[in-house]
Amino acid sequence: MTSLWLDGRPDTPASAPQLDAQHVDVAVVGAGITGLCTALLLARAGKSVLVLEARQVGAGTTGNTTGKLSLLQGTKLSRVSAKHGERLVGDYVTGNTEGRDWLIRYCAEHGVPVQREDAYTYAQSPSGIEDARAEFDACRTAGLPVEWVHDADVPFPFHGGVRLPDQAQLDPVPLLDSFVAELEHRGGSVAQGARVRSVSIGSPLRLTVDAADRSASRTVTAEHCVLATGIPILDRGGFFAKVSPHRSYCVALKVPGDITRAMYLSSDSPTRSIRYAPTPDGERLIVGGGGHTVGRADHAADAVSELVHWAKQHYPGAVQTHNWSAQDYSPIDELPYAGPILPGTRHVWVATGFDKWGLTNGIAAALALSGQILGGHMSWARAFAAWSPHELSGLTTALQHNLEVGYQMAKGWVAPLARHGDPAEGQGLVTGPPWNLRADSVVDGVHRTVSPVCPHLGGIVNWNDADCAWECPLHGSRFAPDGTLLEGPATRGLTPADTHVSHHARGGSARP
Question: What is the pTM of this model?
């Protein structure tokens, strides 16, 4: 599953990173929009900066986003308002506005294509009108120039919604490429295929880094470390318990005739996110939705099938060209985190909890983090505080979330006792008693067996049949069929066992 944006990009780094005896002012872990923008801002200020990326630039959430750059974010503002009131809603909007405007200026100055379009939060049915109205009220209170519209020129059900004019959308990959080019021009560097395994606190910090080719570990020293990895790879601060990981899906389609121009996001379920995207081969319609907590979907592939069915139902003649998925993290108190990993520390920094709005929140977090590292302060950054009394509003959510994590832990170790048999093509299965668990999968005719125990905190992985990947239902770590780590907070993969050609696919064709 390759996104429309990443299609045609190499899956592996061209060569192993050169990291011998490196010392920098700031080491940034993660080469998505937050990490690269933070690195660029610090390099502009004269800092020596190294970005360490375990896979490739944009391989995580940024390269799999829908690419919407909007202050109207579904029902986000009404949810923030319900927990925190007008002041923090105002700070959140101000931070997102600064992030959006900074990014639009950057794109204009560096020739990165952006399409300016209106954004809508809309009700698909009468049951969604109340939530859409609540978002309209929250937007008005925050000073956004929204209007309520009863109709829209769209082929899908529309029962009224909020319209915010002149927002933006883009392809994130040219943006990341531009960030890398400017960063390197200013003396910074990006090491792809460099996975950070640990960070030792001291003066300076010591980062242990493994190369993708599994050669010997290297050490990078730095005065500051920024963890821009979606969820922090370090357990200090317990951020894995303060965010909930979610997987959602997108399909791109060729659509005959007129294509929907504005950006739409439903206020009711099932979620529908719609935008168009220009490509060298003509415009595409992008439809997103089908979200679930990572590792807890029985048949994730059904979500992709549902999106395609919905698109073809409302856009007759539509032909699917791509489908992909992305991982996002929802904070317990609705507000993102951008600040020190522990209260009072000023050397290790985190950014997470963007709740599917990383293009604006990621830039805002980069502005906040670089400002703090350089000794500055932005008043709106209190809405992005990594540690703040406003988190008390999320205690009930955190309790529910972590009770569910405990349940998933127990279930994962016991449920495989009742499972038997071999997986079919494109499927995976965990079987065996707790003392001898095994995870078997068959993908493209290759049968692989790995340990199902997540190396983060010992959860038992489940199979995602949409992505053909193992997922931990505790905190969202994800692994390829052969156990290779795809996303943290784990910092190493599943222990592999035997690999052989499966009898399921002898003489057959590869998975589509």
Answer: 0.92
